[in-house]
Fold:
Amino acid sequence: MRVLSPGLLVCLVTASSAYAAETVEILRDNFGTPHIFARTSAGAAYGAGYAQAEDRKDALLRNLRSAVATEQSTLSSRLQSIVEAFAAGINRFLLEHPDASAPVTPAMVVAYSRQALGKMYSSNDVLIGPARSTSGNVIAILDPLSGWNDDARPYEMRWYASDQQIALSGVAPPGVPFPVIGHNDSVAVGWSGPNGYDEAAGPRALDQAWAMITARTLAGVQEALRMGQIPGVAMVGTSRGEVFDSSGRTLNDGILVRPRSAQSSEEAARKLLAAQNTWPFGRLVDVAFSATVYKAETWQARLVKFAPEFRFVPTLTGWNRRADAASVEALAFYLFKMALGQPESAALEPPGSLSDNRIRAALRKVQDQVETQLPYRADYGTMFRVTREGSTQSIPVGGGIVTEAGMITPRAITFQRAGQVMLGMRGQSATQIVELSNPVRSMSVLIPGESDRPESGHFDDQARELFSKATAKPTYFGDRKELEKHLSSKKELTKN
Structure:
């Protein structure tokens, strides 16, 4: 029999005595995403604390113990109960899986949440207004970016409190009790700083985040924003067809695109979205993960005039301009660009100073590489791959931002060279595609997987099964019957 430490006993008793007992269910889908069903928001937070500790205990504890409260935070009674229940859920897991970990406290959760909400993810969000969606509904692409080994890498959860008619879907840094980027049945919320913020949020930041993600109308969102507790820019769509950006940007031809880290990235997204007048929900999944290389057609136009003795030219001019993992032509384009040498290789389109002789020399060099140095039929995924620390393998992937080769796609991945391979370990991390219809439809991908435990089946399964194939999984939002057809586990907790 294990003897509880005095600190853990006090924390558990204090956190549990304030609430009536209720049953909390954690249903995990085939990709390990927790769908938490409870009667109250405190019950759902209790389940979220348990699930986060189960999946990412080490990162969660580092997050919570790294934060230092700089001033007293005065939360509403509801948020205080959510924070206390969340801490109790974490401690429940620590009690069931004993190690040297000391219990966490509600004060740690509040302090870390302020830190996390003051350093919001940068993002590549897009909102499609009713006039540009096939259904006439707002469709959102919520696309936060992070490192895939970061302790603050987004954690995905579904969050249901039946007595309060609260249903939430989305992500938050581990250590935050509920989704802060995601949607309910009426509103989708994205948060971003252009290059990331790094300042403490206000003492009532959790109250503002809660008011945002549970709002049912744009007026409710705007009222929450007036609290002024969270630095950054919010982008919001509603089921009434409204689109809002807290920075003051408005719809441009029916579309709102978050300012990206590079202006050309935003232009690439806009060009892609201009390809058709209206967009159905399913096609926007393709947009979110598009590997179309921006302005590659300008290079093809320059190469068309070259003599047929360059056998490599038809490979480049006949390319569909998509850097798909299986594309032989995309790898050839990358090698051709790199063979030009800097600064020309980094140019998005051929500079006027680029001579025909430089192009011919690059074509000869890349043709020799392909014929004598690379494996037969080597493709883009042969060289461009994704992985994470602790993984025994890397996974071929398409798209990305390869600055030195002037290759930019809407699908955001940044790479670093590792020998002969370009490894991606940062970029799109929790993409959500949401249609604010009735009922709401949503799909998502969490990169590389829900768990941080290498022995887990959900350590990098979404990178392997979804991200590498440029697709997404259903969230089963609000559809428990369908969810139960796709379960990997089910656990019941009693929250006293």
Remarks:
- Residues 296-425 form a domain with the Penicillin amidase (Acylase) alpha subunit, N-terminal domain fold (CATH 1.10.1400.10).
